[in-house]
């Protein structure tokens, strides 16, 4: 009986330690207004390591509350970088939209000139 209690406490402590490491990563990432490329690589490396540990070791050990906490941390981490990706994509879409609008205006001007050339009467006659 005592051995079972000790084993349960050791297992819970290791999961708690894992969750605390994940929480530290998330809070560090969320606390930064901007993240440089080298920092981003380190954060991604740590994230991949923690994700691997989760699947290999901790997933089967977690109770429902711990799993809920893990999923919250994971989502917060991913949301932080998703927001950054969305901003980059938005900038690219804006840039593409400007180029597309310019192209449409030119195509419209060309078509208008062709139509005027076809249907405008020559006033010199």
Question: Would you give an account of this structure?
Answer:
The protein is rod-shaped and about 95 Å long. Helix content is about 85%, strand content about 0%. The relative contact order is 0.08. The protein contains 3 helices and no strands. Helix 1 runs antiparallel to helix 2 (about 35-60) and helix 1 runs parallel beside helix 3. The protein is an all-alpha fold.
Q: Features of this protein?
A:
125 residues, mainly alpha, 3 helices
Morphology:
rod-shaped
Class based on secondary structure composition and strand pairing: mainly alpha
Order of helices and strands: HHH
List low-confidence stretches. 5-12
Global mean pLDDT: 78
Number of strands: 0
Percent of residues in β-strands: under 5%
Fraction of residues in helix: over 70%
List the helices and strands and how they pair.
Elements lengths: L1 H29 L6 H22 L5 H56 L6
Summarize the structure.
The chain is 86% helix and 0% strand.
């Amino acid at each position: 009986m005592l051995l079972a209690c000790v084993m349960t406490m050791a297992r819970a402590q290791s999961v708690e330690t894992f969750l605390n490491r994940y929480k530290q990563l998330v809070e560090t990432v969320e606390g930064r207004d901007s993240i440089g490329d080298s920092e981003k690589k380190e954060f991604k490396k740590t994230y991949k390591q923690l994700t691997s540990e989760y699947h290999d070791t901790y997933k089967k050990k977690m109770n429902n509350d711990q799993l809920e906490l893990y999923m919250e941390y994971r989502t917060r981490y991913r949301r932080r970088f998703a927001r950054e990706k969305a901003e980059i994509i938005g900038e690219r879409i804006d840039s593409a939209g400007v180029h597309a609008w310019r192209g449409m205006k030119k195509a419209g001007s060309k078509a208008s000139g062709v139509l005027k050339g076809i249907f405008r009467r020559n006033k010199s006659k």
